[in-house]
Amino acid sequence: MPSASTIRPITPEEIPVCSRIFYEAMNELHVRKHLPAEDGSDDAWIRTALGRGLRTDPGSTLLALDGDEPVAFGSASRRGDYWFLAFLFVLPTAQARGVGRSILDVLLPADRADLRLATVVESFQPVSTGLYASFGMTPRTPMYRLTGLRDPSALPPLPNGVTAEPLTEDLLDACAPLTREVLGFERPDDLRDWLGDAVTARAYRRRDGGVIGYGFLDGENWTSPVASTDEPLSAAIVGDLLRGTEAPQEAKIGVLGWSGTLLRTLLGAGMRIDQDPYIYCATDTDLPHPAYTPYAAFLP
Fold first, then answer.
1. Residue 1's pLDDT band (boundaries 50, 70, 90)?
2. Which domains, from first to last, does the chain contain?
3. Which residues contact 127 (CB under 8 A, 6 or more apart)?
4. What is the CA radius of gyration of the chain?
5. Per-residue pLDDT tens for 253-295?
6. Which of 62, 91, 92, 116 sits at a 20 to 30 Å CA gap from 99?
7. Rounded to two decimals, what is the model's pTM?
8. Cα–Cα distance between 37 and 30 in angstroms, integer?
């Protein structure tokens, strides 16, 4: 049986189809692994993510069809020389037929030998991990989801000489050198998008005026991304963002296992790892800076 009869870019109207495939594939896996099911009725996040992908990386979200039936989708983003696989999900009835590999073959750019390829995969998905490794994306480090901090005073204050101010569009250019240093590429469109979603977004300056950090806090108290080149400063930025809310609820943040001081500080302040870790996989060992906390598993 062929892997898929058609692989083509999705249309905006097909975003709900991709959401359905995601939840059917994920929940079938969760049942097999004796894990709680994901709530597919609360899918605004994936619709938003795929909508942004259509806007920022047109042609890089693909739908696979068996005849007229959608059976899988994949989505990727490219920032400079960094290519990231955001989503790759296949309906349970179409798995083990090479559909995922076929989508990856189409998604990967022709100049991929010159790119850094990366993705994030759930640690309980060994088949997916093996597929990505066959394309050179080797497991490099876990990525933990931490939750549980209700008292931000347990985190360190901002260092002397570091000041905070609202992060506005006027400051995005000033954030570019820091983003390039911690990730290896710039992402002005992503930062602009996150400004639109954030409850709080702040830039952090030293005495000479240079931007040495920034951070975002959304309506669900996700404090990511946070960027700096100093892990203690990143921990202080998390605390500063949370202290700026009127009534802090349970905070949430994603942290790479590559981090040391930052991870230790957050755990010491009362945060806890609340689920199986993800795995960051890449073709190179040039990992994001340990003081950086990724936006999400689908877009670092």
1. very low
2. 6-114 (3.40.630.30), 146-282 (3.40.630.30)
3. none
4. 19
5. 999 999 999 999 999 999 999 888 999 999 999 899 999 999 9
6. 116
7. 0.92
8. 6
Chain-centroid distance, C-alpha 63: 21
Dist. CA 94–CA 87, nearest whole Å: 16
Q: How far is CA 217 from the centre of its chain?
A: 15
Distance CA 156, CA 269 (A): 9
User: How confident is the model over 170-180, as pLDDT tens digits?
Assistant: 999 999 999 99
pLDDT of residue 246: 65
Strand, helix or coil at 285? Answer: coil
Whether 183 and 292 have beta carbons less than 8 Å apart is answered as: yes
- CA 284 and chain centroid, separation: 18
Placement of tokens 């989505």 in the chain = 75
Question: Given the structure tokens 């088949």, which residue do they identify?
Answer: 127
Q: Tell me how far the alpha carbon of residue 15 is from its chain's centroid.
A: 19
Sign of CA dihedral 119, 148, 50, 70: positive
3-state secondary structure of 155: coil
What angle is formed at CA 33 by the lines to CA 133 and CA 70, rounded to 5 degrees?
Answer: 65
- In 3D space, the residue among 30, 51, 52 whose CA is nearest the CA of residue 40 turns out to be 30
Name the helix (H) or strand (E) containing 144.
Answer: strand 138-147
pLDDT category of residue 4 using cuts at 50, 70 and 90: low
| Measured distance CA(185)–CA(222) in Å, rounded | 23
Residue in the block written with tokens 């938003």: 48
Query: What is residue 175's three-state secondary structure?
Result: helix
